Amino acid sequence: MELFEKAKPILEKLIKNGFEAYFVGGCVRDKIIQRNVGDIDIATSALPEEVMSIFPKTVPTGLQHGTVLVIHNGEQYEITTFRTESTYHDNRRPSEVTFVKSIEEDLKRRDFTMNAIAMTPNNDIIDPFNGANDINDGLIRCVGDAKERFQEDALRMLRGIRFVSQLDFRLNDETYNAIHSNKELIEKIAIERISVEIEKMLLGKSPKKAIDLLIKTKLLNHLPSFQYCTTQFLELLDLPIQSLKDVEEFWALILYKCNFENPEKILRSWKMSNGRIKQILNIYDLLIETKIEWSNTKLYQVGLTDAIKYERLQLVLDHLNANELDEKILKSLYNKLPIYSKSDLSFTGNDLLEWSQIKGGPWLKEVISEIEYLIVENQLENNQLAVKEWFGNWLQK
Ligand code: ATP
Ligand code: MG
Predict the structure, then answer these.
(1) Which pairs count as long-range contacts for 13-18, CB under 8 Å and 24+ apart, including other chains?
(2) What is the DSSP letter of 289?
(3) Pocket test residue of 30, 35, 110 for ligand 1, highest count of atoms within 8 A of CB
(4) What is the DSSP letter of 142?
(5) Pocket of ligand 1, candidates 31, 115, 117, 166: which has the most ligand atoms within 8 Å of its Cβ, to mutate?
(6) Chain-centre distance of CA 194, in angstroms?
């Protein structure tokens, strides 16, 4: 069933209890664009405690912002009480909110006209800022005075550019100019929030449009790590980066292009998880090697996933579309590998000790690596008999 249909009983229940309730924000925008709707957001005149008393299963996830999570038929819905954000400090999202009486007042606090549209369960639209028109024109326009809105919450500048990439829209002139004149305020925003927007930007339909805007508005010069990277980002615009698939590929390419002295430090400063840092650095390390030829050993060490990412990036660096990569060649080479890890070996270190009757030492590790190499390269069969024979000869030498 369509997401909206599934959520309608929630709105109807609120209305039956004497409150107003609307679909709002991204879901209404995406429905008008006919784009896949990610999550359903609901705005209501009911106070959080009233929402919690109406629905049997709720989680008070953001009470200070007026948000309650309602669980209905196994799905989660964010229900937020009509509110404004009255006090802004330091150009950041406010710490307190004030509840308001009408949906119109609630829509006023939202960032862009396309995100400030409400819809009733009967699909009637409430659109005080003509957001639907702007959607039609592919325009991103602030609700109210753009400069003021970016001064209230500087993250909105990046959200705007992120939507340019995701929706393939344009900023209207006022919005563009307001970003240009308030760019340095982005420095007040927590890196975690910046990072979410940058990644959505990179993975959107038109990452080049977004990067171009970051450069032209000079917002780029105020983003962490990228103060001095304008030339390098300009070079990215010459490459078919829109054909890249995941955020690790993008990050590896950015690190490679920007040629940072300490790439790991950069990723740490972006507060990424250790797992992600490792993934990105693995690909980055491949990129800075001289062009890789895939021997059995190299593919065994690197693994199929990273090998494919590397080859996709090589194509992009050669100005070719990453989707052109014929993964079959690498996959078939990989599928023919005799083993995939040490645990696939037919023998253990203890076997070698037993066969040799010599005391363990550094030699053991070395000889295991040598046998592993021979097996991966199909120069020795992975069975105990063959290994024992080879090992006997090795001992004699
Ligand atoms: P997405 O498709 O990425 O979820 P979205 O527009 O739904 O995009 P959310 O972060 O889910 O973005 O926010 C939901 C709604 O809340 C927005 O559509 C907008 O109306 C409002 N909103 C979110 N962040 C801000 C902000 N920083 N300033 C003003 N309004 C905001
Ligand atoms: Mg959303």
Answers:
(1) 13/54, 13/55, 14/42, 14/44, 14/46, 14/51, 14/54, 14/79, 15/121, 17/46, 17/50, 17/54
(2) S
(3) 110
(4) B
(5) 115
(6) 11
Q: Kindly write down the DSSP assignment for every residue of 36-104, as one continuous string.
A: -----EEEESS-HHHHHHH-SSEEEEEGGGTEEEEEETTEEEEEEE-EE----BTTB--S--EE-S-HH
pLDDT class for 234, splitting at 50, 70, 90? very high
Task: Compute, in angstroms, the gap from residue 254 CA to the centroid of ligand 2.
Answer: 27
- The DSSP 8-state label assigned to residue 22 in this structure reads E
Tell me the per-residue pLDDT of 69-112, one tens digit each, with 9 for 90 and over.
Answer: 999 999 999 999 999 986 667 777 666 789 999 999 999 999 99
Q: Is 197 in the pocket of ligand 1 (CB under 6 A)?
A: no
| 168 pLDDT more than 70 | yes
- Is there an atom of ligand 1 within 6 Å of 149 CB? no
Helix (H) or strand (E) holding 24: strand 21-24
**Rounded mean pLDDT, 293-306:** 97
- Secondary structure of residue 23 in the 3-state scheme: strand
Write down the pLDDT at residue 38: 86
Predicted model pTM: 0.91
pLDDT above 70: residue 65: yes
